Amino acid sequence: QSLRRDVIPQILSNVGTEEITKAAEKIRREDSEKKKRKLKRKSKSKKDREMEKEMSVKKDMMSTEKSETKLRTEVTPFQLQSIAQYMEEQNIMGQVDAQRDFKQLTKVAEKIKKADSKKRKSKSAKRSKSTK
């Protein structure tokens, strides 16, 4: 019985220490994971900041520098205005031409109708004379 009494406290103490070590390991793992997360966040934020700086520098460079082709092809407001006026005039002239063409076509159609009606009248007059 003395052996049993000695073994039981040892088993209990072993179980207790195992639970404690497991809990300690769990805490260590959680702490290391938290540290890793923090490091990732910091590195991401540093990378983001660096990227933002690079992008802003590039945007500034692009906005201040104009390429030669852009300078050559850049249109002034006066040019735009004259182009708009030209297009408007062309549109108006096109409408005038279309109206003129329509009037001419209607005149030609009226002449043809008159000529046809004259022919009909003359034919009918000839018929009426021949029947009398």
Automatic annotation (TrEMBL):
Q: Where is the composition biased (Basic and acidic residues)?
A: 47-73
Residue stretches of biased makeup (Basic residues): 35-46, 116-132
Domain of life of the native organism: Eukaryota
Region span, Disordered? 27-73, 110-132
Descriptive protein name: Uncharacterized protein
User: What is the species of this protein?
Assistant: Trichinella nativa
